[in-house]
Write a structure and sequence with these properties.
single chain, 0% strand, 85% helix, 141 residues, flat, mainly alpha
Length: 141
């Protein structure tokens, strides 16, 4: 699975890991303050699953348009974006109709993609800075 994610985008496994870490933090902190722990957790799980789906779908969309003429690429990317948002709307409607989870934690889970997208460059810089320096010094010698 990690090789598939790396093939789509070398930084996608980091993004997925940050989304999952975000889920653990939000679950670990929030579950103690709510009465309905099951709906809290199920809403968050559905939101995180959507965030992971969207991250992988965006990466596969971008990978799939490499080498495609720009006019067709724009159409393909636009259609995939519309499909992603329709999935999000359908899941939110299903959650409301079937009372599957807390809509606020669902939203927090979906926002995990945004949190990960903003945090990934900083986290990558902190954790992988030393390895990059080691690689550059080996090329210089």
């Amino acid at each position: 699975m990690i090789n598939y994610l790396k093939r789509l985008n070398p930084l996608l496994p980091e993004l997925v890991a940050i989304i999952l870490a975000y889920a653990v933090v939000v679950e670990g902190i929030g579950v103690w303050f709510v009465e309905d722990k099951l709906r809290y957790t199920s809403g968050l799980a559905i939101g995180i699953a959507l965030a992971l789906f969207m991250a992988i779908n965006i990466a596969s969309s971008l990978w799939g348009i490499v080498g495609v003429p720009s006019k067709k690429a724009r159409v393909v990317v636009s259609l995939k974006a519309i499909c992603r948002y329709l999935v999000v709307v359908a899941v939110s409607i299903a959650m409301g109709y079937f009372n599957l989870g807390n809509i606020l934690t669902w939203f927090a889970g979906v926002m995990g993609l945004k949190v990960a997208a903003f945090a990934q460059p900083m986290i990558h810089k902190v954790f992988f800075r030393k390895s990059r320096k080691d690689e550059s010094s080996s090329y210089e010698t």
